[in-house]
Every structure is written in C-alpha cells, then in structure tokens.
C-alpha cells in the first residue's frame, strides 16, 4: 500500500498495513452512557467487507458497553450475508436493503440502528487504532449533532505520474474541534436524537447520482446542528487500481462540482433563490474553468506537470458546477 496524503516512513496505527502486522496492545474500554451503532454499507465487495469486519469488531469492543456493528447490504441478491455469517461475531448484525441506491442503504441504517449514536464508515476503509473512541470522546465534549473524521488514502498500486501530480486523493485535515458545514458518510458520527428532531433522512432522489450525504449534512447545519471535526479519528481509504486512471479521477472531480450545484439548488427555498443560486454557481464554475485552463496552459508552457494536471482538475470541477447549475446530473452510482 502507498500512502497518499501523508508522508510517513512506517504505517500509521490502523492503516491497512498495520492491520496486517502485529496486533496493537489492548486499551481499557471507554465507559459510555450512550448506545452506539457502527454502520458499514456494502454492495458486492465481499473482499473489502471481510477485511473490515474484524477491525470493526475490535473497535466496537473499545467502548463499554460495546457498540453494535450493522452491515447494510444493498446487493439485490443479498450477497454479503455469507460474509457476515462467516465472520461469526455476536456484535455484528446483517440487514438486507434491496432498494437500489446508496441513499436507501443510508436510510436503512438510520432506521435499524436503534441507538443514541450512529457511526458511518465505508466497507473499503480501515479504522485507525482509537478511531471509534476518539469520535465518541469528541462528541462527549459538548454533544454536537455530528462528529467528522479525516480520510487518508492508500493506493493499491503506485499511480502514474499524472495522477500523482494532480493530488486527486488529498483530503482536508483540520484541528480537532473545528466546526464544519458538510461531510460525507465515510467517517461520520451522528446524534440520532438531533437528526430525528429535524426529521432528516437521506434523499432517495440522490441514491444513484450521489450527494445525498452532502445534502443531508448541509440540511443538518442549516437547521442549526453543529458538525465538529476530530482529526485523530482517522480512517484509511484503500484505493483500488481501477480508480487510478485519468478518466476516473477527472470524472470524480466533475462529479464533485456537479453534486455541489445539485444540492445547492435543492436547498433553495423559493424559485427566486433557486435562480440566484443558479447564477452564482454558473459564475463560480465558469471562473474555475477559465482559471483552470490558464493554469494548465502555464503548466504546458513551463513543463510543470503539477500545474498542468491541477489546472485540468479545476476545469473538470468547474464544468461540473456549471452542468449541475443547469440541471445536468452525473450518476456516480449507476448500476448495470
């Protein structure tokens, strides 16, 4: 595995490398009065699920009483059931959500959890040593609506120089306690009482396009909920070789801008506000396209690969913003 966002000489605790090495010393479980469920959503990735379940089982036992682990299988054929049964833990529960789309799977986790706190993690991620404890501890400071942790990527194989220069897999890192306005569900703790008080669920209309987590957390903050960052609650995203192509990373950059525009229009409270948002998004997207093209041009003239690739990345995101502003929606989770 090859670390993307951090330069390190050895695997960090909880990384995919560390999970394959020596076991870390056991720590006393954190006493908690809140009940906790860790939800992992999966769709036809038995290898990833089999790899993450032992780590989640171990994480669940770092709390006292232990958390539950909920596997939500979005495969119409229910293919993940065998993996869960083979794992054989009394802390892990399986549910089958046949309705296609990641939003339906997220909503199933909301309804099935039955606990005070719900923690989302992806099946292709690996938690760091004190991940769950750090999320819960940060929550206990002042009980915000949500706690958000960082995601650091590792490559399954070395990317080519073009993809590496673009830094497509770099993600934000912030001081613990920082308030943020939105988050993905790849490393997210939710206070379900606050979520239910606002009547929030994930928008099923975004189940195939993606962006339901962006909309959900933006709605939560708009309703007055606080999202707090916990920088020590890190998870490692294992990036498969299939996602290291130039085409894939540029599609993801386009989708990022597209999703932002789409959710911004959905949040608009009136036709007038929607028209204003459309104009703002179009302007911002156009500026990005122009600025990105200029940077790419400078990179081509000077021979700077980072400038050239990051310029192209900016163009892709800007194009996504403009396309989304005018109703074109990219379907990231489209199925065969």
UniProtKB/TrEMBL annotation:
Molecular-function GO terms, alphabetical: glycosyltransferase activity
Domain Glycosyltransferase 2-like: 37-164
Source organism, top-level taxon: Bacteria
Keywords: Glycosyltransferase, Transferase
Keyword Glycosyltransferase: yes
Disulfide bond keyword on record: no
One Pfam family in the UniProt entry: Glycos_transf_2
Residue ranges, annotated region (Disordered): 1-27
Pathway connected to this protein: Cell wall biogenesis; cell wall polysaccharide biosynthesis
Similarity remark: Belongs to the glycosyltransferase 2 family.
Protein name as catalogued: Glycosyltransferase 2-like domain-containing protein
Lineage summary: Bacteria, Bacillati, Actinomycetota, Actinomycetes, Micrococcales
